[in-house]
Amino acid sequence: MVKEGKYIYCIIGTNQDRYFGSIGVGGKGDEVLTIGYDDLGMGMVVSNHPLTQIDVNRENMLAHEKVIEKVMEEFDSVLPVRYGTIASNADEIRNLLDRRYREFKNLLRDMNHKIELGVKGLWENMDIVFKEIIEENKKIKKAKEEIKNLEEKISIQSKIEIGKMVDDALQKKKEKETQCIIDVLQKAYVDIKRNKTVSDEMFMNASFLVDRGREKEFDNIMDDLNEEYKNRVKFKYTGPLPVFNFTNIVIYPEAWEK
Predict the structure, then answer these.
(1) Spatial separation of the C-alpha atoms in residues 255 and 258, rounded to whole Å
(2) What span, in angstroms and rounded, lies between the C-alpha atoms of 72 and 9?
(3) CA gyration radius, the chain
(4) Which of 3, 11, 58, 103 is most buried when burial is the number of CB atoms within 10 A of its CB?
């Protein structure tokens, strides 16, 4: 029979008992509650889970995130722990809190009253964007005209080189447009994490660390940006979220191994 362990979701600044519902990872309705350390003023939010590697699937990952979001409704400072982290028992959790007390305490202070907001920017019409790139780059424009006039004589290698020039110009355009938006948002956030874009259309993918008291200000700026970039850019604005991009604590080198 597989031994039961304690699946860890996050760390919070209380040693008092809390119950967050039967919403644990694994779909069995396991209770989510806290295990604290009396002298440290902090605890870990956990649920029971077998001491085996947890499946990495959408259902489990969403459950992990939803528990942390539920905790955020009650606590201003929440430190997410990496998905799939399982401790052997409650004593091991208390030992972890004791051993890494200063690290966790400092992070709780830094993340106090903070949330994460996500902004993705996607160009609405790539034909327009590519036309702008050609007009803005004389070298590309000249090469395109040569292809048009000498289509049959242009080598495959030349076409590849032109494609690379266009791609390089696209990346620079993404960077420039992203920076313009970040500059507008700058006064409303504490920190930023720029993530990878996943298509030509997506020029921006960023996470912002924002003080809860300035969330409305950030919202208002996003409303203004939506109006300013109307018919050119579609923004995907998400949050408030746990601060995954700014502190995702690793308890073990491998999430489920001791």
Answers:
(1) 8
(2) 12
(3) 24
(4) 11
Residue 230, domain member (yes or no): yes
The model's pTM: 0.84
Amino acid 16: pLDDT: 83
Regions of the chain short of the pLDDT cut 50: 255-258
Q: Are residues 150 and 222 in the same domain?
A: yes
Find out whether 233 and 121 touch, Cβ atoms under 8 Å. Answer: yes
Q: Please answer whether residues 132 and 71 qualify as being in contact, where contact means their C-beta atoms are separated by less than 8 angstroms.
A: no
**Is the residue at 178 inside a domain?**
yes
Question: Are 182 and 96 in the same domain?
Answer: no
Structural domains of the chain, count: 2
